[in-house]
TrEMBL record:
This is Alpha 1,4-glycosyltransferase domain-containing protein. PANTHER family: ALPHA 1,4-GLYCOSYLTRANSFERASE FAMILY PROTEIN. Keywords: Membrane, Transmembrane, Transmembrane helix. It comes from the Eukaryota. The chain crosses the membrane at residues 7-25. The keyword Hydrolase does not apply. It comes from Acer yangbiense. InterPro entries: A1-4-GlycosylTfrase_dom, GlycoTrfase_DXD_sugar-bd_CS, Nucleotide-diphossugar_trans, Put_A1-4-GlycosylTfrase_plant. Residues 278-400 form the Alpha 1,4-glycosyltransferase domain.
Length: 405
């Protein structure tokens, strides 16, 4: 009996490993066959393939996800406790693995796809970025997309993402695309985005391995820069993926949100770059990009993001020629990151129920959206009856799997 159990275990393990390897191979092939039209368009052949593929993968998806995420992220994470010279040497060795730097037929079509996608029928043009593996784009992120389209039924949202611009990415976005919303994932051309901006020389140095990327994963800092460059080139709204949108942003123009204010003076103390709303070629965006390129530090969290926009705005907010608005924390950051967990929890008594009602009433006022601070909340379950449960239920489109996300 012992030998039989042991042999069965070995056989099962071998089959499991073979199946996972097959899935990895299949997804790598699929990702190269990107859907490169301006908007993803379903057809019967693809729909049939995707339906069959989804069913065959469902039992191994969690295993595959762990392998893909861990191997990709860990291999590109800078080593800790090394000198700058050692980190640069590591970075040069790893450069061929940074897919985001590579050019292909999709990057060459980037500008044309953007122009084709954003037509006159768009009530609002919005961008997001997604540099992580496609399987990391989960139910919570999809619910965030739903709230955007609930507030903007005729809005146009483009996700700048090499990983989502794929057959696998299509599967993730298909439930929303089936609702005929204007949504697309597009592979960005970073060289084009940064060309003729102060970031061009910085990007050339990074791409050639001549600059220290720092201890913080480079993807995080690239996202900070991409959002600035895409708004500078095209104008519109940038949103982080961990937002629940509560009402239309159409009335906002050339705006950035304060994350915190001084309790006495009411003046802002820190801004955040998770939401940016600016016209094309806005001078403040150019200042942001210039600051990124000249003061880049990949070792300090927030230095190239929230702290960057705070530094620049502090210097220019009283100068002529910069026309912009700093919105209060209630607009996009009504809950401090340290307290975000309270929105996900079910009230335990009548006092808790009264707090939920009061919070919902407060958010229905000046709040355009709620930043979920994904680093703190991504593993929190949404309890039915919680503030977050009520918000998503009232602002979703498909409204499935809210409490399992």
């Amino acid at each position: 009996m012992y030998l039989l159990g042991r042999n069965s275990s070995v056989i099962f393990s071998a089959i499991t490993i073979a199946a996972v390897i097959f899935i990895i191979y299949e997804d790598s092939v699929i990702s190269k066959e990107s859907l490169h039209s301006g908007v993803f368009r379903a057809n019967k052949e693809i729909s049939g393939q995707l339906k069959k593929s989804t069913i065959s993968h469902i039992t191994l998806r969690s295993v595959q996800e762990e392998i893909e995420n861990a191997s990709l992220m860990n291999s590109l994470k800078p080593p800790a406790s090394v000198t700058e010279e050692e980190r640069i040497a590591w970075f040069r060795k790893k450069l061929p693995e940074f897919e985001i730097f590579k050019s292909n037929n999709l990057t060459e079509k980037f500008h044309g796809r953007v122009l084709e996608f954003f037509g006159e029928e768009c009530e609002i043009r919005a961008f997001m970025t997604w540099i992580s593996p496609v399987r990391s784009f989960g139910k919570r992120e999809v619910l965030g997309l739903e709230t955007f389209f609930k507030a903007h039924p005729h809005g146009c949202l483009m996700i700048l993402s090499r990983t989502l611009d794929s057959r696998h990415g299509y599967r993730v976005l298909k439930p929303l695309l089936d609702r005929q919303v204007k949504l697309a994932a597009v592979t960005p051309d970073l060289s084009f985005l940064f060309k003729n901006t102060p970031a061009e020389s910085w990007f050339d140095s990074i791409k050639s391995g001549n600059k220290d990327p720092g201890e913080i994963p480079l993807a995080q800092n690239l996202s900070n820069l991409i959002r600035l460059a895409v708004l500078y080139k095209y104008g519109g709204v940038y949103l982080d993926t961990d937002f629940i949108i509560l009402k239309s942003l159409k009335g906002l123009k050339n705006s950035i949100g304060a994350q915190s204010t001084d309790v006495v003076s009411g003046n802002w103390t820190r801004l955040n770059n998770a939401v940016l709303i600016f016209d094309m070629n806005h001078p403040l965006l150019l200042k942001f990009i210039e600051e990124f390129a000249t003061t880049f530090d990949g070792n300090k969290w927030g230095h190239n993001g929230p702290y960057l926009v705070s530094r620049v705005v502090q210097r220019v907010e009283n100068r002529p020629g910069f026309n912009f608005t700093v919105l209060p924390p209630s607009a996009f950051y009504p809950v401090h990151w340290n307290n975000i967990g309270g929105l996900f929890q079910l009230p335990e008594n009548r006092a808790g129920l009264r707090w939920v009602k009061a919070k919902l009433l407060q958010l229905s006022g000046q709040t355009y959206g709620v930043h979920l601070w994904n680093k703190q909340s991504s593993r929190l379950k949404i309890d039915e009856g919680s503030v977050m449960g009520r918000l998503i239920s009232d602002h979703c489109v498909i409204c499935e799997q809210i409490y399992s996300s």
